[in-house]
Amino acid sequence: MAAPRAPLHLVAPRWNAGTRGIRGLSRAAAPEGNQKKGRSLLQFLADRFYDVQALREYLLRKQAWKMHQKNRFQGKEWIRSNARGHFSLDFLKLQTVPVEAVDASGCAVNYQGLDSLLALKELQVLWLQRCPHVDDWCLSRLHPLASSLQELSLAGCPKISERGLACLHHLQNLRKLDISDLPAVSNPGLTQILVEEMLPDCKVVGADWARGLKVGQEEQYQDITSPIPA
Amino acid sequence: MLRTASWPRWGRTLLARGLGSRRGGSAPDQNGKVSEIKKKIQSVLPGGAWNPLYDTSYLPPEHSDVVIVGGGVIGLSVAYWLKRLEKPRGAIRVLVYSRASTVLSVGGIRQQFSVPENIQLSLFSIEFLRNINEYLAVVDDPPLDIQFNPSGYLLLASEKGAALMESNVKVQRQEGAKVCLMSPEQLRNKFPWINTEGVALASYGMEHEGWFDPWCLLQGLRRKVQSMGVLFCHGEVTRFISSSNHMETRSGEEVTLKRIHEVHVKVDHSLEYQPVECAIVINAAGAWSGQIAQLAGIGKGPPGTLQGTKLPVEPRKRYVYVWHCPQGPGLETPFVIDPSGVYFRREGLGNNYLGGCSPTEEEEPDPGNLEVDHDFFQDKVWPSLAQRVPAFETLKARSSWAGYYDYNTFDQNGVVGPHPLVINMYFATGFSGHGLQQAPAVGRAVAEMVLQGHFQTIDLSPFLFSRFYLGEKVQEHNIV
């Protein structure tokens, strides 16, 4: 498709009256006055009654649990499901358009499920945040995307360890990699350094390498404020 | 088998009925007493472990359907698949464990072999490892983490071996392995720490290759196999009692078929032994399978005949060295195998590496003990390493260990399947250094052979014992 690329931004998810979406926490517009009052009443009740708290948690979980399968095509905006989880039928007209970005955050993608993602030869952005079944074996399958993939996010995946990160070196065109909050990585600071060395052109975001360093005594603290250049 | 006869079942229901008629009394207490009584009754019956004269609980049982000689990863894998593939009747197995080389292994798994059957074995094994928690799940136990590093293998070839490597890669791709060929220039771009002098071609496994923790696999198999009802015992096999049958083949030749009836298992540090009556013996004794085969009478006969063909598996000592090199290759380092036979891989995040080299025939060390020869590292391994990876000139050796290969002197490939003359002995040995990576698949193949009489999923007929007599070598070229 030769359409010029419109600026592509993620639009904040819709509001469910009375609850806050987890994404909305950082990117949402300011709430209106009456909504705010309604929320603080609910908050007041939730602090005092377990039932109301459970109801709020249930509504929150229900919203987070909806499969946010968003796809961005070349030149188009994000395509996402509507309130009921259905996709619009215009989707089918775009079958020949190469897919550029996939947001599969929170989805239950596993090793076999990656077959469909690997067929996308022009994929540039892949977000696999908080996917519970993505592990080291899945990462070893990503090498066919090496020629096109530029951005990869693995934040919050519970099963990924530093052994899987080692096979990301096939992705030579990668420019942005997010490896924050990986609980199975044994030494996040050291892993960040090693991954940065492995992918010199890529900006690696995530583990703060200075976190693993121990601060000595008070007098020495002033010397260690700025990171030692590599 | 008398053990599962009707009497204990009737006895159990009698006890249960007796329990139901009583009210009061704490329920868990009654359950404990009932199970104790049941256990006592079962042990008194023939086949149980109760002996009224003295305590024999440390000895193996007197009867067993299958005796697996060897408690390493191959033996445990055979036990697992036998229990998994058997039709509902539970048969008892006994494992005689003496020593295992599994935990001393470097733990690599690859599909870059030249024989198609080896590639298929390795492909199934990697699939087994990927789904290990579905295969080896035990109730209430934590899931296994075999710490798999999917970094792949990098085999380097000189001018001489380049053509062979190309044809090997074609075979590997046909079987479904994901391997790519690289020229020296591509190699330098991808891995700048490599010195490509003398390298004409390299093959790099992209997926399904890497290394893992063999101890974890062994523990997982052990735990699962124990939960399936397999019995373990420590001891040494000292004797086989067998009977012979003189028969005639269709062409009128006389053949002596042997059948093993009893295995004498000697307890450690004692002269006591227990004769275990069995139906099938599986020789998975690794480096010592040659001795076990000799005990069974394999190879006793005029040389050149089938009776005189020995099992050509002997222990060969191999060293593994660990070193530290702060400027060494980075996180992306695959398992590198040099054309000179030297190999190394990374270990962990701390710039530690481990590796070694297979000595030539003249330099073979004495397999009598597991002492490490440090001069071998200085003279043979380090120079090749430093030549291939210049950063390794400043390495510091940390530690080392030695282990045995169950080396098949005939063609360095495994021996799987029954012996043509000793009809109830099955082999699963002789893998010459790549037994660990083929263990799950070999276990399944042997279990199929035992339960169904033929190979079903992977056809390992080129690996039968008869090839030693017929002289058909299945030579594997990519052995380190």
UniProtKB/TrEMBL annotation, chain A:
Gene3D superfamilies in the cross-refs: Ribonuclease Inhibitor
InterPro entries per the UniProt record, alphabetical: LRR_dom_sf
Signal sequence range: none
Protein family (similarity comment): Belongs to the ATP synthase subunit s family.
Subunit-level organization: Interacts with incompletely assembled mitochondrial NADH:ubiquinone oxidoreductase complex (complex I).
Function statement: Required for the assembly of the mitochondrial NADH:ubiquinone oxidoreductase complex (complex I). Involved in the assembly of the distal region of complex I.
Name this polypeptide is given: Distal membrane-arm assembly complex protein 2
Gene assigned in the entry: DMAC2
TrEMBL record, chain B:
SUPFAM superfamilies (alphabetical): FAD/NAD(P)-binding domain
Membrane topology: Single-pass membrane protein
Required co-factors: FAD
Keywords: Electron transport, FAD, Flavoprotein, Membrane, Mitochondrion, Mitochondrion inner membrane, Oxidoreductase, Respiratory chain, Transmembrane, Transmembrane helix, Transport
Main location: mitochondrion
Domain FAD dependent oxidoreductase: 65-449
Keyword Isomerase: no
Cellular component GO terms held in the UniProt record: mitochondrial inner membrane
Gene Ontology molecular functions: oxidoreductase activity
InterPro entries: FAD-dep_OxRdtase, FAD/NAD-bd_sf
Protein's cellular compartments: Mitochondrion inner membrane
Self-association and partners: Associates with components of the mitochondrial respiratory chain complex I.
Purpose of the protein: Required for the assembly of the mitochondrial membrane respiratory chain NADH dehydrogenase (Complex I). Involved in mid-late stages of complex I assembly.
PANTHER family reported in the protein's UniProt record: FAD-DEPENDENT OXIDOREDUCTASE DOMAIN-CONTAINING PROTEIN 1, SARCOSINE DEHYDROGENASE-RELATED
Protein name: FAD-dependent oxidoreductase domain-containing protein 1
Organism: Canis lupus familiaris
